[in-house]
Amino acid sequence: MKKVILTIIFLALPLCFGVLAQMHPQSTVALEITADASGVIPIGIVMFQPMEGSEVARTAHPWRVIAENLNFTGDFSVRRLNTADSATLAENGVPVYISGQYSIEGDTMIIEIYLREATSHGAIVGQRYAFHKNDTRAIAHKFSSLVHQTLLGSKGPYETQILFVENTAEGVKNIVISDFDGHNRRRLTNSGINILPSFMGRQNILYISFERGKPDIFSLNLRDGTRRAVVASRRVESSPNWSEITGRIAYASSKGGNMEVYTVGRDGLNPQQLTVNPPSISTSPRWAPNGHNIAFVSDRSGNPQIYIMDRTGSNMRRLTFGGSHHDSPTWSPDGLYIAYTARRGGRNIIAVSAVDGRQEEVLLTLGVDGSHESPSWSPDGSHIIFSQNRGNSRDIAAIRISDGRVINITACGTAEQPNWSGF
Q1: pLDDT at 37 > cutoff 70
Q2: pLDDT class of 31 with cuts at 50, 70, 90
Q3: β-strand partners of 151
């Protein structure tokens, strides 16, 4: 059972735009919030009310987005309420609730949102936002992060983004970016074949493009849309992955005649070859969060398995042993686990192994329909997104590590190869 003990300072001064004004405590009380029988924290979300004289919101409903957000993580049991009277709150068994009011002036929406204690209705935390009404989801994500941080001590995934590949037409694959929940999608490329996207910080991405007739590594700036070739040769370049710690890109290349793992500066200069093991193939390198290790795939043992090496290519060791095929390794944010695609029983599933080898492999999506590929961890380590393939349909789904709860992110039938941003 989860128990959250909060020392609440009730506040009684106006809020300023975007941030809390300096407030003086009126009273202090300790509140214990205990999870219900399902292991989650009950929380009420009351429909926001228009301020006096304001028009009623027709399409922008931030309270609905907040409810969807908190439901996503599985940490909260959300009760959607029409009123916040004591009887309704008690009947629904919620120790805390979210309420708010808004006004709309042209294209501007102003919202005051509060997380309140249910018995006294005192404000635990609150914010006042002024923003363009098209940015409602972004504001809802911000307040969801504040609630998650206040009650659980961590931000949750709400302000993160994902990349994925969309098969827009026969033979055409484009890179798409969206909020963590699949909303606010924006296509970043518009023609040709573009695959294997990954974030390079929050303002740039890496991906493979065939625009020159063969796979090369490109970078794209998310602010201004500028792009450039980072690694290009007459051979195959693949699987780019950037390390914030080292500032270098790990990738696979056949430029030496055999597919091997290299690193290079983010400007494409100073390449370093890490693996030399012909005729076996080494590919799909992924940096560890500490920047010291790299996981990669090699068939040097006879079939593709996951290996780990230092960033210089030394101290190489094998991580996976069972099954006939392993691919697409990705590190957990704490660096203790690696998730990957594993072929079991004629289909691909997402598996997880401890980096130190002391725990048995966990077949995470064994009970989930379809074939699963391309795992990527959420930055808080709570979920893994992956491509779920069922027949000719491919979509992105997320699975919660703690209990195997699966949530669909897309439902278009054309989405694959997801990658989750950092905070």
Answers
A1: no
A2: low
A3: none
CB 193 within 8 A of CB 176: no
- At a CB cut-off of 8 Å and minimum separation 6, what does 390 contact? 369, 370, 371
312-349 pLDDT, tens digit each: 999 999 999 988 899 999 999 999 999 999 999 899 99
Q: Which residue has the tokens 């789904």?
A: 397
| CATH fold match for the domains 3-152 and 161-420 | no
pLDDT attached to residue 323: 83
Buried b (16+ CB within 10 A) or exposed e, 370-408: bbbbbbbbbbbebbbbbbbbeeeebbbbbbbbeeeeebe
- Closest by CA to 350, choosing from 397, 318, 288, is 397
Indicate the fold that domain 3-152 takes in CATH. Answer: Rossmann fold (3.40.50)
Phi, psi of 72 (to 5 degrees): -60, -45
382 conformational bin, left if phi > 0, alpha if psi -120 to 50, beta if neither: alpha
Look at the domain 161-420 and name its fold. Answer: Neuraminidase (2.120.10)
- 423/417 Cα distance (integer angstroms): 20
The predicted structure's pLDDT at residue 397? 98
Give CA 356 to chain center in angstroms: 25
Q: How many CB atoms lie within 10 A of CB 145?
A: 19
The predicted structure's pLDDT at residue 290:
96
In degrees to the nearest 10, what's the CA dihedral of 372, 407, 73, 200?
A: 50
> Rounded distance, CA 159 to CA 144, Å?
9
What whole-number percentage of the chain has pLDDT above 70?
91
Q: What is the pTM of this model?
A: 0.91
Query: Domain extents for the chain?
Result: 3-152, 161-420
Angstrom CA distances, 85 to 44, 77, 119, 199, stand at: 11, 19, 10, 45
pLDDT tens sequence across 78-99: 999 999 999 999 999 999 999 9
